[in-house]
UniProtKB/TrEMBL annotation, chains A, B:
Residue ranges of domain HTH crp-type in the record: 190-266
Gene3D superfamilies noted in UniProt: Jelly Rolls, Winged helix-like DNA-binding domain superfamily/Winged helix DNA-binding domain
Superkingdom field: Bacteria
Keywords: DNA-binding, Transcription, Transcription regulation
One Pfam family it belongs to: HTH_Crp_2
SUPFAM superfamilies: cAMP-binding domain-like, Winged helix' DNA-binding domain
Name recorded for this polypeptide: Helix-turn-helix domain-containing protein
Length: 284, 284
DNA sequence: CGACCCTTTGATTCTGGTCAAGAATCGTGG
DNA sequence: CCACGATTCTTGACCAGAATCAAAGGGTCG
């Protein structure tokens, strides 16, 4: 895991980062369904990926292919701020993200709001609604994107007919469970700065797995969102990022402080692990 | 090192007799498979349940019935400390809890340990292993109990054959996702005392849903476990419980401080909600 | 250009973590 | 049945990290 550092894609084929903006029209060339879904696009990135990330990427592409073949879903374009579904709405569809980024926001009976998950290309949206027929959270686009709309009935029907499809769906749910747990682990066991660091690492790994640049992240969220997701205040997030930058573990892009460069991912990962970082809620 | 926690004898034929060694003899009348599964037992409790809890209870019983009818699993008795599976072991079976309580423990690459979930009768164990063929965490029994052993292949096969079974399984996974998120919400948005309070409320509701007493909880875990699960130190847990007791929101049982009485659940829930409790990682 | 939001940074407060001592409980062996 | 040692739990004193309050700088958009 340590040598994760050098799989930089030649920026030749790589696209300019999108400016995070609120509700303006976005350049679709990057995140557009077709361009990002095409096999040659993935090929152009694959050689630079680590074996593991590459395999994951491959599995994702295969899964998406299975869905397209068996379910033949319709697609839909979304822009930053668009809401795919809201908590409480009757559940009947799930979504597969072809491009873009989404946040899932839960609300408790009293007004507490919590970003419980971030989702990207290849992830599914809506599974949490299966259990009681209503969506359990809001799904909000953080950027221009594209999703496949998949009626749950059709999906279930397809699952019972095609074992590979069921396998894909079960894997996706299983992964979602695991990822949720990783978040919990992070929040419970890491001090704030390490938590921010790990968040960046996770984002980077996540991008790598999707065949995207992993060394230059463009966070599509405010410090407040970030803090909420990580269980700290926006001021603390800001301070932690500044400190990480001061310690040369990250750099801010010239295109604004939401763009973050990770010069050496292994070193950042190491900071999390060996860090001064513990929160000591030790077991036994 | 109490739980040297080795695997139970896995010999297909013989079930080990229930012989609690270092743990006190438990009264099995409540948690025993047969008694708790019997319809009249559930009837004897149902009248005291809220409508919602009762429906949930009903759904759980139906689901368990479906499993027994369609998969015909073998069962296995476990004692406190027994380990059903460990992180990293090849995944091939899931488990359905007939009785007892389990904790799921995740470990990060560096040594951090985190109890990511608590599971009870009607819950499933092992779903998180589907995605990459290996279990993602340890499953440890916190008490004498009984699980159905369900080979995943058989389950998948059954799912493709019987829609209701698939429905049950999908619901179970969906629920697991939602619950994981609730944990995250709790850890991220509540101050420690409110978090402890909410934990107790959740446990109580959970018991109610299973047709068990909801006003007298017997926590089967140490303060350290509790703290770990809730993301705080054991000392903080202790202080919070003491404070809750001082404020009459809970009472300690005469059978030890792991037994907790909730005289008025609504009041405790209200404390969480209206509480002095917020952690203010407010969104926007 | 000005209004608004986002971000950073500092000063201060306070919750919760750390360290330590003592009490209660459990399990074991006599 | 009791005594002893080992855990587990509670409580206090102290301290650190993160929340809160406040103000100023930067970007973006109308």
């Amino acid at each position: 895991m340590s040598s994760a550092a050098n799989f930089l894609p030649t920026s030749a084929s790589v696209k300019p980062p999108i400016l995070p903006s609120r509700h303006t029209v976005h350049d679709l060339s990057i995140d557009h369904f077709d361009s990002e879904m095409s096999a040659d696009h993935s090929d152009s990135h694959a050689p630079y990926l680590h074996l593991q990330a590459r395999q994951a990427h491959q599995r994702m592409l295969e899964a998406m292919q299975v869905i397209r073949d068996l379910v033949k879903p319709t697609a839909k374009v979304v822009r930053a701020g668009d809401v795919l579904y809201r908590a409480g709405q009757p559940f009947d569809t799930v979504f597969l993200i072809n491009a873009g980024a989404f946040k899932l926001v839960s609300r408790s009976l009293d007004g507490r709001e919590q970003i419980v998950s971030l989702k990207f290309r290849g992830d599914w949206l809506g599974f949490s609604g299966i259990a009681n027929g209503r969506h359990a959270c809001d799904a909000v686009a953080m950027d221009t994107g594209n999703v496949s709309i998949i009626p749950y009935d059709a999906l279930a029907e397809g699952c019972s007919r095609h074992t590979p499809l069921m396998s894909v769906v079960h894997s996706a749910m299983s992964t979602e469970i695991s990822r949720e747990r990783e978040s919990l682990m992070s929040v419970c066991t890491l001090a704030s700065q390490a938590r921010v660091a790990e968040f960046l690492c996770a984002w980077a790994r996540s991008m790598a797995q999707r065949g995207l640049r992993a060394d230059e992240l463009t966070l599509r969220m405010t410090r407040a969102d970030l803090g909420n997701y990580l269980g700290m205040t926006l001021e603390t997030v800001s301070r932690c990022l500044s400190r990480l930058a001061r310690e040369q573990l990250i750099r801010f892009g010239e295109r604004g402080r939401r763009q973050i460069t990770i010069p050496d991912l292994a070193r950042l990962e190491n900071y999390v692990i060996s860090g001064t970082a513990g929160k000591s809620t030790h077991l036994q």
